[in-house]
Amino acid sequence: MTQTTYSIGTPGQPWGAEEKRAWLQQQRKQRSYQNEVVGELGNLTQNFEIVQYGELDYQAQADEIYPLFLLQSINPDPNKPYALITGGVHGYETSGVHGALRFARDKAADYLEHFNLVVAPCLSPWGYETINRWNPLAIDPNRSFIGLGDSLEARQLIQYLNTQQMEFLVHIDLHETTDSDNSEFRPALAAREGTTNQNWNIPDGFYLVADAGRPQTEFQRHIIHSVSEVTHIADADENGQLIGAGIVVHGVIEYSAKPLGLCMGLTDAAYVTTTEVYPDSPRTTPEQCILAQVAAITGGLNLLVKEVEKAG
Questions:
Q1: Which of 8, 68, 196, 282 is the most exposed place for a label (fewest CB within 10 A)?
Q2: How far apart are CA 213 and CA 255, in angstroms?
Q3: Which residue segments constitute the domains of the chain, with CATH numbers given?
Q4: Is the Cβ–Cβ distance between 207 and 251 less than 8 Å?
Q5: Phi and psi at residue 302, to the nearest 5°
């Protein structure tokens, strides 16, 4: 299915400042980052230190300043590897945000013996509030983890981690693929770039995007198996693909993380993956989507616990 027009801009012409302003004026706050994300952090101090790693000053665009927080293991052990969990790089992908928080609340304590944990639950709070893929400047944070970061959301986390002495063994980045990818976000991207949009088939079910440069297939398989106990795994479409990419193993495709500026390319961890939950499926619920994200994290960490124990 091809989408050729969008409500803003002239087909075939990239957006300028006027079009971006028109797009921004259409966005509306629909939920509260302060209440639904920041308000939950105070309940997690038994195992974590709350660190404000940055701040997004969007007063000019949205009359808001957003403090950015992450959770770090209290008194990290230099002899333990670090595990990084990120959510809300795309703020509209709800289960990524709440899956990170749920893991921190319910499961993190089980892994503190083996890992120093870092959990950044919501990198894009404006996107969370407006249920948006982009930030207010019409930049996709999950295409901007290049160099020092082409978006404020990416830059703040990159700069913070650059000041820390953290050797990451694993990074799990929590995402969703939604029906709105085809109805809104891909057409908007094509309009912004002055190109013609070609929608892809939205997979019905959970899948993973591995980094082609460090695929770690057994790690991906382990996560898929863990999640399959919570929700269904996406099958290939009629072209034998998921979102236009070939399948490596059941439920797993690959992208080149670092050249694309993806968040999973943020570190040099040996084990990385991007989760993709499908919240619009009639076969799942919002709670199952959150639990699928938690199962992805625990499934990956459970495999690596064995490696850590061997190394110790």
A1: 282
A2: 8
A3: 32-177+202-311 (3.40.630.10)
A4: yes
A5: -60, -40
Q: Give residue-wise pLDDT tens across range 239-273.
A: 999 999 999 999 999 999 999 999 999 999 999 99
Token pair in block for residue 147: 């160099």
The Cα–Cα gap between 68 and 87 comes to: 12
142 by Cβ neighbours in 10 Å (0-12 / 13-18 / 19+) ranks as buried
Integer-rounded Cα Rg, in Å, for the chain is 19
Separation between Cα atoms, residue 90 and residue 124, nearest integer Å: 6
Identity of residue 15:
W
For the stretch 127-138, pLDDT in tens is: 999 999 999 999
Alpha carbon distance 157, 162 (integer Å):
8
Within 13 Å, how many C-alpha atoms sit on residue 148's CB side? Answer: 2
Burial 125-141 (b: 16+ CB within 10 A, else e): bbbbbbbbbbbbebbbb
Task: Report pTM.
Answer: 0.96
Alpha helices in 3-56 (DSSP H): 17-25, 33, 39-41
Check if the beta carbon of residue 234 is closer than 8 Å to that of residue 292.
no
Write the Ramachandran bin of 9: left for phi over 0, alpha for psi from -120 to 50, otherwise beta.
Answer: left
